[in-house]
Amino acid sequence: MSVTRILDLIGVSRIVGGQSILSDINLSLIPGEKLGLIGPNGSGKSTLLGIMAGLIKPQSGEVYLGGKPIRDIRRRQIAQQIACVAQHADTSDRLTVREAVELGRTPWLSALRPWGDEDEEAVTCALDVVGMGNFSSRDWSTLSGGERQRVQVARAYAQSTPVLLLDEPTNHLDIHHQISILDLVERLSSTIVIALHDMHHALRCDRVMVMEQGRCVALGSPLDVLTPKLISEIFRVNAQLVPNPAGGRPVFSFQSLT
Amino acid sequence: MNQGSAASKMKWVWFSPIILAAALLFGTAIGETRIPFSTVVDVLSFKLGLSGAEIDVVDMSVIWNYRLARAVVAACGGASLALSGLILQALLRNPLAEPYLLGISAGASAGAVSVTVAGLGAGLVSMSAGAFVGGLTAFAFVALLAQAAGGSTGARGAGVIILAGIAGSQMFNALTALIIAQSASAEQARGIMFWLLGNLSGIRWPDTWLAIPMAVLGLGVTLWHLRALDAFTFGADSAASIGIDVRRTQALLIGVATLMTALMVSMAGAIGFVGLVVPHAMRILVGSRHSRLVPATAIAGAVFLVASDVVSRIALPGQVLPIGVVTALVGAPVFAIIMIKGRKR
Ligand SMILES: Nc1ncnc2c1ncn2[C@@H]1O[C@H](COP(=O)(O)OP(=O)(O)OP(=O)(O)O)[C@@H](O)[C@H]1O
Ligand SMILES: [Mg+2]
Q1: Which terminus of chain A has fewer Cβ atoms in its 10 Å neighbourhood, N or C?
Q2: CB-CB contact of A232 with A239 (8 Å)
Q3: Looking at domain B3-344, which of 3.30.465.10, 3.40.640.10, 3.40.80.10, 1.10.3470.10 is its CATH number?
Q4: Which residues in chain A come in under a pLDDT of 50?
Q5: Phi/psi zone of residue A244: left (φ > 0), alpha (ψ -120 to 50 degrees), beta?
Q6: Cross-chain CB nearest to B237 (options A80, A86, A103)
Q7: Which of B219, B217, B220, B233 is nearest to B289 (CA)?
């Protein structure tokens, strides 16, 4: 039996200052799947994404990229396979939207492989995909929070990697652009891990991993995992699944626990 | 703006040899003693084998041995210091980073002075080696101090590392003063103190044989890392996520910046603010992408220091001002402006 392995985490833990931030995470990504990470603030979602990207070293456990320990792979090679959008990334440099997206091509360029038409196309395409095509020559500093977020997504998209890690990419976005980012995620053939806070967004993923205080409390298809019982335990709210009168996915109704 | 049109915007780079030559000519033509411009041209064309006019030996010596060598070192040093500042600003994500303000110059001075006074040889190579070790030690000290104070990144980090730089500068300057007081003769001490403020008057041709290769090497390494420097736009983590080996890049480039600064310090003392003024002025002119910023900064740094040197020679009649005083007079206000602008963000 041959299984294509993309990204595997085995027994990953991280401790900072005596406090356990992640403990014993085991996870194997299925090629092409969209995995949602969901959990309260501080539950370790960003840390887990950082570890998956090889940016943070776990104290114990191992991350495998394509079957090889990620710590043995050179940064450039990792960046040709994994792109990520961080939760907070900003700059005070004066640069245009297009120049920001061009950074995504960095892992593909070298002295022997200078900037070319292919890169130009990837950048244009990435800008169009997030609906920022008309903003190409705008200064970064003049963008709104949501526009910046979309440019960051475009930068990661321009990186043309098989794996995409998105840390709350719908942050700051109006409802239209939230949906369009999720549509994009659904449309792409890449394997995508996406940290989320909105349960309705989580319902659109293939699998959901629920985290609490650095532990994985549940992993599976969204409707199996996001039960009213689990939601009340982890998120301390009452949740009810209401059938969608227009058909399609059900919707949640939340009330405070009393 | 795409990279294609960036290339067309880069045409001015081809004028850089002319700009550089003009700056050198300017630096050679102006000095404490007035020498007619025609004599300057005669000397240069004679030395370059273009003509065989009769020239006064003194004029010849002043123009060729003294002024031109000095202008060449000023140009190389200006480019080196400006590039050092640019590298530190890009890698530390800190608009105020500069070898002088981060204490690297002070550390290099202490290193160079200890080597001289300890009698390990007053040659340029041993002094430069001492300066390099001193500069690296100072940077390590400042970086560790900033880290311990809990700020190496972010808006607060920018201030913290400058404070650490001040502490480092003070400490290494005190160390230098201590070494001088302990072991230098009164004569030696006066010379060292004057040199410490930045002074190009001791420069002769042999100095250029280190200054030119250093500037060329520094520029070469920086040009090789243009994309890596750009990659730090959104911080070190973002650079890593687009394939940059952050540790290696930082070690190499900060090492080169320190080496350039150390060599300049051992030749001409601590000349401050060049690495602050020039890159910021160039950002306004050509933007923040390093493919344009690096060449522009190198050329402008060269021109700036040659011009500062000329000003230092003619500002006070009959007296030579340390060049560090001239660069600080321009640099301190620029520092203030950047600080005020940073606060508004
Ligand atoms: N370098 C660090 N030092 C100390 N604590 C840290 C460090 N990095 C993360 N933590 C802690 O680890 C926990 C998990 O952080 P993480 O950023 O992964 O949470 P998150 O699930 O992404 O939260 P959010 O929903 O708010 O983005 C938090 O309690 C955070 O304070
Ligand atoms: Mg987070």
Answers
A1: N
A2: yes
A3: 1.10.3470.10
A4: 1
A5: beta
A6: A86
A7: B233
Q: Is the CB of A57 under 6 A from ligand 1?
A: no
The predicted model scores a pTM of 0.89
Alpha carbon of B112 to those of B49, B71, B273: distances in Å?
A: 38, 23, 20
Task: Give dist(CA B140, CA B120) in Å, integer.
Answer: 24
- Residue stretches of chain B with pLDDT short of 70: 1-10, 53, 119-122, 150-158, 184, 342-345
* A209 CB near ligand 1 (under 6 Å): no
- The two tokens of residue A219 are 């992993």
**Which pLDDT does position B2 carry in this prediction?**
44
The alpha-helical segments, DSSP class H, found in chain A are: 45-52, 75-79, 97-102, 117-129, 145-158, 175-187, 199-202, 222-225, 228-235
CA A188 to chain centre: 13
Provide Rg for chain A, Cα atoms. Answer: 19
The partner residue sitting opposite A75, judged by closest CB among B234, B240, B342, is B240
- Strand A163-167 versus strand A82-85 pairing type: parallel
Q: Using CA atoms, how far apart are residues B27 and B289, in angstroms rounded to an integer?
A: 30
Q: So where are chain B's domains?
A: 3-344
Place of tokens 């939601």: A231
Which residue ranges make up each domain of chain A?
1-74+163-176+188-226, 82-160
ipTM of the complex: 0.89
- Within 30-89 of A, beta carbons closer than 8 Å to B belong to 50, 53-55, 74-80, 82-84, 86, 89
- Burial (CB < 10 A; 0-12, 13-18, 19+), residue A219, is middle
Tens-place pLDDT, residues A135-184: 999 999 999 888 898 899 999 999 999 999 999 988 888 898 888 888 88
Q: What is the rounded end-to-end Cα distance, in angstroms, of chain A?
A: 52
Distance CA A154, CA A151 (A): 5
Assigned CATH class of A1-74+163-176+188-226:
alpha beta
β-sheet bridge partners, residue A62? A10
Output the pLDDT for position A90: 85
Under 8 Å between Cβ of B171 and B139: no
The DSSP code for A133 is G
- Protein residues placing their CB within 5 Å of the ion ligand 2: A 45-46, 87
At residue B1, the pLDDT reads: 40
CA angle A97, B223, B303 (to 5 degrees): 100
Which pLDDT score is estimated for B5? Answer: 47
A258 CB-side CA count, 13 A: 3
Question: Three-state DSSP class for A227?
Answer: coil
**A63 C-alpha to ligand 1 centroid (Å):** 19
The phi and psi torsions of B99 (rounded to 5 degrees) equal: -55, -35
Q: Is A37 in the pocket of ligand 1 (CB under 6 A)?
A: no
Beta carbons within 10 angstroms of residue A88's beta carbon? 13
